[in-house]
Design goal:
The chain has helices spanning 42-47, 51-57, 86-98, 110-120, 135-139, 141-152, 163-173, 178-184, 193-197, 217-223, 243-254; strands at residues 11-14, 20-26, 30-35, 60-66, 104-108, 128-131, 203-208, 227-232. The chain has 255 residues and is α/β, with parallel strands linked by helices.
Length: 255
């Protein structure tokens, strides 16, 4: 593990609807927008296990937002703050706030889905990395959303060691706000195979050996015109802690 939440200062900007959002940065060089997963935050996904440092050392300015409803970003309980695709819109707002015109894009799980939504809505990064994500989680977002809705509305009722219990335990470690996180589920938007086929840039899909939570990563790579697939150790929860993840992202983006 590497670093603590205070090692990389929090910076803030306002989204188009006035919600205050946070981001952290590390390194200098080519900008990389790096987006964390659901129930997590930038520190847990990218800084704690050394991925951001490894990517920064490869020559990148690593820009790590906290999604709304997560981390140091605002967690409003007003459903009006959780319109479909708002997470992609927030990312576009951060890109504009920072004046980025040429950047790379990567994410884990919900961060990967958000990256796909950005590209479906016109983002043109030089390269992109989709990690912890499979084809099913892109084509049918409500499948995985239903699982999380079940967890968040039944906290305290799951058998110790079950998948739901582990998800709840992770929620507690990130100080997640169940009400805001439930509203996040309303923002999910499916992406069609036709939209995936129109993403005309190099994309690396990386998933853990035992991660099928969002379907097949290999199938997602095959659905992209210039997709490449890579396996790393772990399942959906553990692969993000493995050094192979940061290495895979840095190697692909630097090639």
């Amino acid at each position: 593990m590497a670093g603590s939440p205070t090692d990389v200062p929090v910076q803030r900007f306002s989204a188009r609807d006035g919600v205050s959002l946070a981001w952290r940065e590390m390194g200098e060089g080519r900008p990389l927008l790096l987006i964390h997963g659901y129930v997590s935050n930038a520190f847990v996904n990218w800084i704690r296990y050394g991925h951001a440092r490894h990517i920064a050392d490869a020559g990148f300015r690593v820009i790590m937002p906290d999604l709304r409803g997560h981390g140091d970003s605002d967690k409003p309980h007003d459903p009006a703050c959780y319109k479909p695709d708002v997470l992609a819109d927030d990312a576009f707002d951060l890109v504009r706030h920072l004046g980025l015109t040429d950047y790379d894009l990567a994410g884990y799980s919900l961060g990967a889905r958000t990256s796909v939504r950005m590209m479906a809505k016109g983002a043109k990064p030089r390269r992109a990395v989709l990690s912890g994500m499979g084809l099913d989680g892109i084509l049918n977002t409500q499948g995985r959303g239903g699982y999380f809705r079940h967890v968040l509305t039944n906290i305290g009722s799951f058998e110790r060691g079950s998948s739901e219990w582990l998800t709840e335990a992770f929620l507690k470690t990130t100080d997640g706000d169940p009400e805001a996180l439930l509203l996040i589920l309303d923002t999910f938007v499916d992406t069609s195979r036709e939209e995936l086929a129109a993403i005309d840039l190099p994309v690396l899909v990386v998933t853990g050996d035992d991660d099928d939570d969002n379907g097949s990563g290999e199938a997602l790579a095959e659905a992209l015109p210039h997709g490449r697939f890579e396996r790393i150790p772990g399942n959906h929860m553990s692969a993000v802690t493995k050094p192979e993840l940061g290495r895979a992202i840095a190697s692909f983006l630097a090639s």
